[in-house]
Structure formats: structure tokens, C-alpha cells
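Bumping with the actual sequence this time:
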Amino acid sequence: MQLQGSIEQFKTVYAGLNPVKKITLFSLIGGVIAGLTLIMVLNGRPDYQVLFSGLSAEDSGAMITQLKAKKIPYQISSNGGAILIPKEIVYETRMELASQGLPQGGGVGFEIFDNSKLGMTEFVQNVNYQRAIQGELSRTINRFEEIESSRVHIVIPPKSLFVENEEAARASIVIKFRPRKTLSADQIQGIVHLIASSVSGLKPENITIVDSLGNQIGSQKPKNDFDGARTDQLAYQEKVERTLESRVKTMLEKALGPNKAIVRLSSNMDFKKQEKTEERFYPDNKVVRSEQISNESSVKPEKTAMGVPGSNAAMTDKLQQGTDASSASAGFQKQNSTANYEIGKMTSRTIEPIGRITNISVAVLVDGAYKTVKGEDGKSKVEYVPRSPEELSKIKSIVMRAVNYTSSRGDEVEVVNIPFENSELAEIQTGEGNNGWISKLMQYSAYIKYVFSGAFMLLIFIFVIRPLIQWLTAEVSNNAQLLGQLPRTVHEIEREYGSPKALPISNQLSQLAMADNQAFVEVLREWMKQS
């Protein structure tokens, strides 16, 4: 019954509207339906996230085929270079595709031999082998962070029976860099040697590298020893300076706070290679080097037969005694000793270190402190407070120790306190900054969109739909009130009290007179006028 009454009321209201308001009413209903549909579609739509970007056409096609087979919804952006899928399954899908070797990095690799056909000629095999090497090398080069894409072209001459008639292999590489990226000289040389080591018979001097604009990058001419040493010296000097700067800056930021100090250090270094040999003698240190001793002696000889043949024995004994006495008196001994001494000596060979620091110059800028004070108008403001000379002296002393300050070699250290121009002070003064709450809200982005949709619908109803309904029904309500004040007809009275067929006319008149005397009088007047 209530639904029927609402329908009758809507018909009454709609019948009292003029054409302009009828059009407005239908537009309002259509706009509400379209808005609700749009909100439901947007809220029911999954959040898409990038699966892979910077893809080649081959990789994009292979990935789309896999996504279709797995019935995973996807979107394509960046002219086919990026594929997006629902956020909830990004990492799982990425690992599944990686297990299948996707993305391959563009081009064709050694997978070209996976479906080798029987009866393939040697020429076709050689061409496929060359394509496979080019594709694999291109994929490897594309792994560099600075490189967006690359193409490798290799010329492998046919083998010859005579060595003197063989031609050397050649290669050319076209590289497209990422925005604001480039390769260093060492990286270019690394790519050159990578290509040369991957192709048999290819020498580094036969490799040409150009960028996407056609400019040759990296000279493959061997550099002389002087240029190489000069480059290494400059790199070493820069490394030493950055190391000392970082040592001082990290120490000051721990004490003063982040972004409160600026440190710049320059050094002069001596790269001369010096070798010194020194030989010293110590006369007091004597050492016997060699010694030779010889002994010589003469002893008494043995008795022998002596005498004149035919002489008697007594005469022979006398001669024998005389000989023994002379022999005993002729015996002797001789001893020689020779000693050679070595004087103590020390020989030292010293090689001076290459890259010795001759002097250091350090410049340090230190920001002051800030405190909040109340101004004359009662509002808080931030005031800059410079650092005291004692504090600057302590900072200078710490810096001198950190860089191993040596006054004898002419080192210089300067510490200056000046206010920094940064946004931190402005944020403090305006009470802004610390946008960490934004990152926290982003964690609940999945729920925020529903809250925002509900709030949007509520505001639309309060400020748009409700005023329009009031404007549409204002005239109808006024007309209804005016009609209610007019005398009711017999048909209205009959419809209010029931069908006249249910009771006789006399009973109906009696009920009407008892219910509303004024209405009964009006009915009688109408009858009298009609008669």
C-alpha cells in the first residue's frame, strides 16, 4: 500500500510539473544513475601495476601470449613497451615469467636451435649461429643500467685454407642510452673486450660503437702509458679527496644534524716514482770472514848403516854417535796464521710511495641553530642563532684531526658559520613540512577510495540533488495546498468515503452530513446549481 501511495504521489507531482522541470527531473535521474555506475566501475576495477617496462616487441608479444594462456587481465602502455597487471599478482606473475626466460631482452638467442629442422643446410646453420650470438650479446649489453637498448652486428668471414688469406672478424654496436645516462670510458672498454672475447678471431680494434645519434663513442686505439697513468692519477686523487670529505661530513652531521655542514677538500699530490739505494759501513763491527793456519815441523831421522867398508865396529859406533848428535841439533818447527776480517755493512733499497699528499686545503661551511620565539604580535617565529667562536674553534680542531692536519706541509683548514638557504626554515615558519602522513595514508589507498566515493555521493545529494528536488516539488506542493483549501467535489468525497455503490444514496448522505457538515452543505449547493 505504501508503494502504491508513493507511486500515486509521484504521478501527482509529475503531472504538476511544467516541461522544463520534467526535462530537469529526467536529467537528474540519468545523472544519478550514471554517477553511481561510474563509481561502482571505478571501485570495482583492480589496481594495475607495471609488470615489466622497456620491453621490445618480441618480449611484449611473448608475455601477452603467456598472460592470455593464464587468463590474467593486462593493460599495455608506452606504445607496447610496458605491460600492467593487477597489483595483487604482480610479483607472482613476474617470477613465473622469469622461470620461463622472459623477458629475453630483445632479439633471438640460442633458443633458435631448440626447433632445428632435419635437413638444414650448413649455410642456414651458420646464419642462425651468427644471429644467436648477436642476440645473446645484445641481451647482455642491455643489462647495463645506463643502456635502454642495443643492436650488435657481427661479420664472421669464411674460413680459408691459407692463413695469410684469412680476414679478421669485425663487429659494430649501436647503443641507445636512457635519458640523462651515459657510459664511462672503462665501461665502454669493458663492452669492447666482452664482444671481442665472445667471438673467435675478433680483436678489440675491429669493434665500433656508436650511439643512437650516429656519434662514435669510445676510441679503440690503445692509449699510451702516459695517458693511462695520468687518468689513474686523477682518479686516485679524486678518490682520496672524496674519502676525506665524507669522513669530515659524516662526523659533522652526526654532531650538528643532517644538511648542517658543507665540506669541500682539495689536495696536492706527488706522483713521482722514486727509488733510493743506501749502503752504510760500520768500522766498529768486525767479523772474521776467513782464517788460515799452517804448521811445519822437522823431526829426528831414523838410524841407518854408516861407516867405511872394511873398518872395525868401534870406529863405526863413533861415527854413528856423531851423526845422531848433528841430526838432533838440526830438527825445527814452523807455524803460520792468516785471518781476514769483514767490516759491518748495511744496504737498503727504498721505493717511495706513489701519490704522496703534499698538502691539504679544507673549507667547511656550518649552519647556525634555530629557536622559536614569540614576536610582538604574539605569534611564534623562528630566529637564527649563529654559533659561538668557541664552538667554531672546536669544530675546526675536530676537522684538523679528521684529515690528519700537518702544519709542516702547509695544510689549511677554514671553518665559517653562515645561515643556509634551504626550505627547512620556511617549513618551520609556516608550520608545514613533514609530509610523512601522506605516505602513511597511501598505505590505505584501497580503502580511501571507498570513503572518498561515499563522501562524494553524500555531498552530491546534499548540495545538488536535494536542492533540485525541492525546486521541482515547490510549485506542486503549493498547488496541492491551494487545492486542499478549495471545496471538494462529490467525486472526491465519494472517493474518500468509499464507493457510492456500496451503500444507498440516503445512507451516503447521512454519513457525509455526520462526517463533515460544511462539505455536506457544499454538496447540496452543487446539486441545487446543477438542477
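The C-alpha cells above came from a reply further down the thread. The chain has a mean pLDDT of 75.
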